[in-house]
Structure formats: structure tokens, C-alpha cells
Amino acid sequence: MWLCSTPGPTEHSLVHQSPRALIQEMPVIRMTPIERHKLKLTGTVEVPIYVTSSRRNSMGEGYVTSLHLPSNQHNSFWILEGVCLILNTD
């Protein structure tokens, strides 16, 4: 999995760094199913996961799901940065 439009997370949190690196490899992520009402979403940002960096294929599809990642910045900051996760680097 690759992090697109922002550098990779450090110390288990997304951080803003140099704009030169547009795609960074994500560390291994352990996904554990949990009931929605037990989620603790404070201090996280919802990041969409796409199949490719174009964010869609010729059929207009490409969105897989979204993932909540820890962040010290407000959600709007990462939305304006265009942060997303991609499964293939094209």
C-alpha cells in the first residue's frame, strides 16, 4: 500500500513534509474489525483507498474503502493536500 500526495507517516502519525515526494510506501497496517460505536476517531483523519494513483479506472471506478489514520492536523488540511492510499503505483 502506498501513501499518495503526502510523505509517509512518522511516529504512527501523518506529518507534512517536503512536497517533492508524492508517493511513499506505507508501513504494514494491521486491520482489526471493531463495532462502529466503539471506534475512537478523535485525532484521526479518514483517508480514501484507491486501486491506482489516477484514483479511477476507465469505467470511473477505483475507490476501495477508507481508513482512519492518526494525525495531529485538522481533517481539512489533509483534504486540501489530496492525501489518499493507493494499492498499485501504476
UniProtKB/TrEMBL annotation:
InterPro entries: DHC (IPR026983), Dynein_C (IPR041228), Dynein_C_barrel (IPR043160)
GO CC, alphabetical: dynein complex
Domain of life: Eukaryota
GO molecular function: dynein intermediate chain binding; dynein light intermediate chain binding
Domain Dynein heavy chain C-terminal as annotated: residue spans: 11-87
Coiled-coil region(s): none
Gene3D superfamilies (alphabetical): 3.10.490.20
Ranges annotated as spanning the membrane: none
Biological processes per GO annotation: microtubule-based movement
The protein, known as: Dynein_C domain-containing protein
Organism of provenance: Rodentolepis nana (Dwarf tapeworm)
